[in-house]
Amino acid sequence: MTDQEKRRLFVLDTNVLMHDPTAIFRFKEHDIFLPMVVLEELDKGKKGVSEVARNVRQVSRFLDELMSGASKQQIDTGLPLPAPANGTSTATAPAGRLFFQTTTLASHLPESLPGNMPDNNILSTALTLQQEHPEMQVTLISKDINLRIKAAVLGVPAEDYNNDQVLDDVNLLYSGEAELEANFWEEHSKNLDSWQEQGRTYYRIKGKDTQAWYPNQCLFLDDDSKFEAIVRRRDGDDAIIEMATDYRSANHAIWGIRARNREQNFAINMLMDPEVDFVSLLGSAGTGKTLLALAAGLAQTLDMNIYREIIMTRVTVPVGEDIGFLPGTEEEKMTPWMGALMDNLEVLTQTEGGEWGRAATDELLRSRIRIHSLNFMRGRTFLKKYIILDEAQNLTSKQMKTLITRAGPGTKIVCLGNVAQIDTPYLTETTSGLTYVVDRFKDWRHSGHITLLRGERSRLADYASEEL
Predict the structure, then answer these.
(1) CATH code 3.40.50.1010 region(s) in the chain
(2) How far is residue 336 CA from its own chain's centroid?
(3) Per the database record, which ranges form the PIN domain (predicted)?
């Protein structure tokens, strides 16, 4: 029997369950083993109001449901895991079982092995199971890279928990734009319809090329024509595209802000479109994500009255040492985290009229811009609000779902982030909540995404991004 044919037994580390409470249902037809030290660590982490504590309590509830009415003999022989949550079970591949450590296992670790006791206990358990059950392929699942390295050194197969991984490679992430071939118009001229409606130019295009397009995807020709359009509807080989508004000109400036490159122009088109309820902007530092989102929000809140107010929020993950408790109200506590908001407001409020004019403008803006903490979002419903979620790459997929489902009628959500700057433990570029929503929303006709490529902050910042 080869390793591929062996029935697999997965030993779960505590951090896997803390990261995803449903992990025990994610291993299809394979068996799961929970060491006693994992249950002890879960018990220590159940108190509090943090996301981790909530996840731990949910794991405990799942385990309690599985053990409900089970006898000691049934626990020893393994509790059957629900087949629907594991995938469709068949006669050849029955649903997996959940095993608990019910006896003391002999340790096979070197006495001088460094490290903390819980990790060493889990390693010892996996090593003992490997020796006692040679007919099974025992694998340790952990989010802890160092534990996986120690396991590999001792000959225990170890893997990361990849069930929440959206893509194999972040380079495969949907960019939001596509370049058309140079002969695009020649190929589609026979089956081409064009018309104008409410001052906008539309084209109906037929052909196999349209099958690869997504709703609100940005299309462009990289030639002298500077053709830029947005996909509005697609049905099989038939697609309707709309010419993008050129926000590079002074006539179409948004709160004094003009697009400086193609990607910024596409971003403003989506931010200003009331039919697009969800916009995600990816890009490195200095590409203009926050400035564009704020300018579009102010224009639609103060000038057009589409939204009642702007709500700005972000994850409070410090880059360096934490500065401790902060005094004041929720907004005052969040102010140190909102440096990006204040910096961009300075650019947007360079009004004439001296000190008095600037003070009046600042007062007006502060009355229409609210700063909220993500910690208090549960249970809320936002009506006709323009929500900017900054540093969204630090959110998990579950936190992202919690936030987006707060949106009520007439609300628009704008997610900003850079997946190359993730500060949350156990999150990677491929498991970030921002990557998750970009991939899941790309087929929805009321969402738009664009990856900003060029830095526009300053020549110093651009050079530093390239060379440092």
Answers:
(1) 7-159
(2) 23
(3) 8-149
